[in-house]
Design goal:
The complex is a heterodimer of chains A (340) and B (327). Chain A has 340 residues and is of the alpha/beta class. In chain A, 29% of the residues lie in helices and 21% in strands. Helices cover 35% and strands 21% of the residues of chain B. The chains are: A alpha/beta (340), B alpha/beta (327).
C-alpha cells in the first residue's frame, strides 16, 4: 500500500498547537447503588499530529474509560469533567451534531473485542460505505465503490473482499476491516483500544505492522491502549502508564519501559521478560497485592500499599508528575527527592 | 538418563467436521516428559497444542499412537482414568470459568479428594494445598466464594485444587494468559516453587515464549499438529533453528537482536495440511529463495521432514528440528 491510496489524507503540518489536548479529565461512573465510582481521576496530556502515544495499565486502571471519554462514548449518567480539546475544540461541550461529525472525520476508535462489532448480515463493502455516504453525501455510486476498494487496500485486503460477509473473514482480517472502517472519513486521530489482544502472535504482529505503516504514511496520530507494555514500547514513541485512574509515569518509550522511574512501571516492565537475558531466566517477576477498588482508593500515593519502596509519608503525601529526565515525568516521591 | 514420566509415541488425533472434512489436529507427535522438569509446549492457536494436552490428560482418544504414563499405556475405562487423575492434574486458562461460583474455596479444593474418595484428613490436606499455593492463612480463604477474591487468587485456588492430590504431573494450559501482567509473575513464581518443593512435573501449554524463558527447562514448538523443534530453553531461544521458531521469536517485541519476520497469511488449517514440509507455503526460506540456493526446494515441497539432531550442536545436545535446511 502507499500513501497515495488515500489522496484526501493531509500530511501533518508542523504546528505548535497539539492535535489533542486533555486537561484534568475526571470520569465518574454511577454504581447500581447510586454511588459515584471514580474511574479517571485527573488526567492531562497532549498529542501532536502524527504522534503515537501508548497508554498502558492493567484492567481497571481507567485506560479504556479514558478512551471512551475522549469521544464521549460512555454510558448515560457518567460524569465527565475537564477539557478534551481536539484541534482546539472542546469535545465535552460540543453539540450532538458536531460531535457526530467529529467522531468520524477528526477522530475514530477501534475497540477492544471489536471482532463482534461488525454487522453479521451485511456485506463488508456496505459497512465501509455507510460512514462515507453519511459524511460525503455528494459522492456518487462509482466513486463510493472506488473509495471502499481503496480503504480495503489500505489495510492490506483485496478489494474483492467487499462482497464478503464478516463470517467469511478470519479474526485478523476482521480486525483489518475495523481499522479500514475507522479510517473511512480520513480522521487525523485513531484511538486503538486493545486492537490486537484477541489475535494470535503472528497475526498480532501483522496488525501492529499495519498500524505502524498507516501512522507513518497517512500521518495519523495514534493513541494505542493495551496492558501489554512491551508491545507499546516497540510501537509507540511515547508511553503513559496509568494506575488507579491517573497517569503515574510518562515519557519516551525506551526510557519508560527500560529505565522506569515509578516503582509500578518498574514492576510492570519486569513482568515482560527479555528472552535471552539471564536476569529473567527462571526468575519470573511479579507484584504482590491487587489494584485498588475504585470505590476505596488509598489516600496519598494510591500505589503505596503495593509499593516495594514505600515510606510512611507515601500514605499521606500528594503525588504529582515530577520531572524524571528529558520529557520524562513520574508521580513518585522518590523522583521528587532525586535518586536514592 | 532417567526414564520419562510421560511418553507420547506417534500420536494422531483427528476430528471429523461437516462435509466429511477431517482435521488432523495432532498429526504424528513423539514427546517425552521427564520427572521434575517444566516442559513448555509452544505454538499458535490451531497448532494442536491444546488437543495434545487434552489427549495426554485422557480427555481425547488418539486415532493412532499411545500415551504412556510411567511406562504403562493409558487405559480409558472409568476406573483407570480416575486412578490416572490422582497422578495427572490439569490447570486451565480461565480461573473464573474453572471454579463453580456457588462453591466455597474449601469445597473447590476438596473436590478432587472427594472424587478420589480420600476422606481422611480432608481439612488438613486442603489447608496444606492452599498454603502451598500462597493463600495464607488458609483458614481465611476457605469460607470465601470465588467472587470474593482477586483473579490472581482464583488461579491460586485452581492450582491448590490440582495440588491437593499430590499429583506427579500437572498439565497447565495457558495458566496466566487471562491474568494481568503484574499478577502473572506471581503465579509463575508459584509454579516454579511447587516444582522445587514437591518435585511435581509441569507440562505448560502456551503461546508465550517469554513465559518459557521464565520457567521452562525445555521447549517443544508445535506447528500444524507436529513438533517442529525441540531442545533446552537456552538452546531453542538462544539459537532457534527451525524457520518457524525463528519467526515466532522474531516478533516478540523485546527481541531486538532479530529482524521481525512477520509470516503472512492466517494460522493454517489442520483440515488441509500441505504436502511435503507442512510449513513450506509460509516458510521465509522458500520466499527469499534460500531453499532454491540450497537445492532443497523439491524436498521441501515433497518430503515430510522428521525431527533430526542439529548437526552443529554440542555433543550430548538434544536439540532437534524438522527442517530440510537444517540437516
Amino acid at each position: 500500500m502507499s500513501a497515495s491510496a488515500l489522496p484526501d489524507a493531509v500530511a501533518p503540518v508542523p504546528e505548535r498547537v497539539p492535535l489533542l489536548s486533555v486537561r484534568d479529565l475526571h470520569v465518574t461512573y454511577r454504581s447500581a447503588a447510586g454511588v459515584g465510582v471514580p474511574a479517571v481521576r485527573g488526567v492531562s496530556f497532549d498529542l501532536r499530529s502524527g504522534e503515537t502515544l501508548g497508554l498502558a495499565g492493567e484492567s481497571g486502571c481507567g485506560k479504556s474509560t479514558m478512551a471512551g471519554a475522549l469521544l464521549r462514548l460512555l454510558p448515560r449518567g457518567t460524569t465527565v469533567t475537564g477539557e478534551v480539546l481536539l484541534d482546539g475544540e472542546d469535545v465535552l461541550t460540543m453539540k450532538p451534531g458536531r460531535l457526530r461529525a467529529v467522531r468520524w472525520t477528526e477522530a475514530s476508535i477501534v475497540f477492544q473485542g471489536a471482532l463482534h462489532s461488525l454487522n453479521p448480515v451485511q456485506r463488508i463493502g456496505r459497512q465501509l460505505a455507510e460512514p462515507v455516504e453519511l459524511h460525503q453525501p455528494e459522492m456518487g455510486g462509482a466513486e463510493l465503490k472506488l473509495r471502499v476498494a481503496e480503504l480495503l487496500e489500505v489495510v492490506g485486503l483485496p478489494a474483492r473482499r467487499a462482497a464478503d460477509y464478516p463470517h467469511q473473514l478470519s479474526g485478523g482480517q476482521r480486525q483489518r476491516v475495523l481499522i479500514a472502517l475507522a479510517l473511512a472519513c480520513n480522521p487525523s486521530l485513531l484511538i486503538a483500544d486493545e486492537p490486537t489482544t484477541a489475535l494470535d502472535v503472528m497475526v498480532q504482529a501483522q496488525v501492529l505492522q499495519l498500524l505502524e505503516d498507516l501512522q507513518r504514511e497517512l500521518g495519523l496520530a495514534v493513541i494505542f491502549i493495551t496492558h501489554d507494555l512491551s508491545t507499546l514500547s516497540s510501537a509507540c514513541r511515547r508511553l503513559a502508564v496509568m494506575y488507579a485512574g491517573r497517569i503515574v509515569e510518562e515519557g519516551p518509550s525506551k526510557d519508560v519501559f527500560r529505565d522506569a522511574a515509578h516503582p509500578y512501571t518498574k514492576a510492570l516492565a519486569a513482568a515482560f521478560p527479555v528472552i535471552g537475558d539471564p536476569r529473567f531466566r527462571r526468575a519470573p517477576s511479579g507484584l504482590g497485592g491487587d489494584p485498588p477498588d475504585p470505590q476505596h482508593i488509598p489516600a496519598g500515593c494510591s500505589f503505596h500499599p503495593r509499593c516495594p519502596v514505600a515510606e510512611p509519608q507515601c500514605a499521606t503525601v500528594n503525588v504529582e508528575l515530577w520531572p524524571a529526565g528529558p520529557e520524562h515525568r513520574a508521580a513518585c516521591v522518590h523522583v521528587r527527592e532525586g535518586p536514592r | 538418563m532417567t526414564a520419562p514420566l510421560l511418553s507420547v509415541r506417534d500420536l494422531h488425533v483427528r476430528f471429523s467436521g461437516r462435509k466429511g472434512t477431517v482435521a488432523r489436529a495432532v498429526d504424528g507427535v513423539d514427546l517425552d516428559v521427564y520427572p521434575g522438569e517444566v516442559l513448555a509446549l509452544v505454538g499458535e492457536s490451531g497448532c494442536g497444542k491444546t488437543t495434545l494436552a487434552r489427549t495426554i490428560l485422557g480427555l481425547e482418544r488418539p486415532a493412532q499412537g499411545e500415551v504412556h504414563f510411567k511406562g504403562q499405556p493409558l487405559a480409558y475405562d472409568t476406573a483407570s482414568l480416575r486412578r490416572y487423575r490422582r497422578e495427572v492434574q490439569m490447570v486451565f486458562q480461565d480461573p473464573s470459568g474453572a471454579l463453580n461460583p456457588r462453591q466455597t474455596i474449601y469445597e473447590a479444593v476438596a473436590e478432587g479428594l472427594r472424587i478420589q474418595k480420600l476422606h481422611e484428613n480432608e481439612a488438613a490436606l486442603v489447608a496444606d494445598a492452599l498454603s502451598r499455593s500462597g493463600l495464607r492463612p488458609p483458614e481465611r480463604f476457605m469460607p470465601l466464594y470465588p467472587y470474593e477474591v482477586s483473579g490472581g487468587q482464583r488461579q491460586r485456588v485452581v492450582i491448590a485444587g490440582a495440588m491437593v492430590l499430590r499429583p506427579e504431573l500437572i498439565v497447565a494450559d495457558e495458566p496466566v494468559s487471562s491474568l494481568d501482567a503484574s499478577v502473572r509473575g506471581e503465579i509463575l513464581q508459584l509454579m516454579l516453587r511447587l516444582v522445587q518443593d514437591t518435585g511435581v512435573t509441569i507440562l505448560v501449554v502456551t503461546h508465550d515464549l517469554g513465559l518459557a524463558w521464565n520457567i521452562a527447562d525445555r521447549i517443544a514448538v508445535m506447528y500444524l499438529g507436529r513438533i517442529v523443534e525441540q531442545g533446552t530453553t537456552e538452546e531453542l531461544l538462544d539459537d532457534p533453528r527451525h524457520p518457524y521458531t525463528r519467526a515466532l521469536l522474531s516478533v516478540v517485541p523485546e527481541v531486538e537482536r532479530m529482524t521481525p519476520q512477520i509470516l503472512q497469511g492466517e494460522t493454517p488449517d489442520p483440515t488441509r495440511i500441505p504436502p511435503g514440509c507442512r510449513f513450506h507455503p509460509r516458510c521465509p526460506l522458500v520466499t527469499d529463495g534460500e531453499t532454491e540456493r540450497l537445492g532443497i526446494e523439491q524436498r521441501c515441497q515433497g518430503e515430510d521432514p522428521a525431527l533430526q539432531p542439529i548437526a552443529t550442536a554440542v555433543a550430548g545436545s538434544e536439540h532437534v528440528a524438522a527442517c530440510h535446511a537444517v540437516d
